[in-house]
Amino acid sequence: LRKLASSNNRLREESWLKSLFVRKVDPRKDAHSNLLAKKETSSLYKLQFHNVKPECLEAYNKICQEVLPKIHEDKHYPCTLVGTWNTWYGEQDQAVHLWRYEGGYPALTEVMNKLKENQEFSRFRKERSNMLLSRKNQLLLEFSFWNEPVPRSGPNIYELRSYQLRPGTMIEWGNYWARAIRFRQDGNEAVGGFFSQIGELYMVHHLWAYKDLQTREDIRNAAWHKHGWEELVYYTASSTPQNLASSSIPSSLMTVLSTSKHTASAEQKSFLNSEWETILGRIFLLQKKINI
């Protein structure tokens, strides 16, 4: 009887905790883009991953530095190059680019059509294709509870944490992180939060900025001393059965640092399929407009 009573008490406590941290939303009522994205902006983001031939990385960075800033600075292209990095550890010889399209899908279409007519960009793409092993991209929207990436004092290192969620759990993830984000604002480290719309689905990306790796360690450890953080981590960790971590720091273009992998416990496999951690390092930035 004592065991039964203890078990019932535990269940009631867990139910009470869940009621604190979960806002009941029926994901069938509307699209994720309407429930989770910002209403006041129509910005669309594109995240690009380019795996570069090791012997070509320096040349790849050089041509990117020559061409991409021109697109970023051209007022006739409704897009902004938020940041671009090279990976150092984890995925080696990888370049990561984050673009913002002010105006959503119409802006993206406009940029694509203009780039087709841009002879310099056509030559750039042809030259770049000889340097790549593979590439992929995703179209993303911002979570409503994250700030838009904006200029900040630096230099900083940047960490991209990517999560592949189980289908049907995006709303829960958004509910938990709308509460969790308040625990991660002390050092102004939260840069942006995004979820995929086209490309690899059920993906979430959180972008963080830190002065250096030690500051990152201190801030992350400090979060565990805040009441409520551990419950939020527990329930969001239940979204992925395994974690993959990598990190990065920039070269002349930008950069990713340390890699680790582990499998989550059995009770933590409810809504995450996998997690990637990437420290992107100091951003090679077009210093005028996008020093985030």
UniProtKB/TrEMBL annotation:
The keyword Mitochondrion applies. The keyword Cytoplasm does not apply. It comes from Sus scrofa. InterPro entries: Dimeric_a/b-barrel, NIPSNAP, NipSnap_domain. This is NIPSNAP domain-containing protein. Keywords: Autophagy, Mitochondrion, Transit peptide. One of its GO terms (cellular component) is mitochondrial matrix. Belongs to the NipSnap family. One of its GO terms (biological process) is mitophagy. It is found in: Mitochondrion matrix. PANTHER family: NIPSNAP-RELATED, PROTEIN NIPSNAP HOMOLOG 2. Residues 158-238 form the NIPSNAP domain. Signal peptide: none annotated. The lineage of its organism: Eukaryota, Metazoa, Chordata, Craniata, Vertebrata.
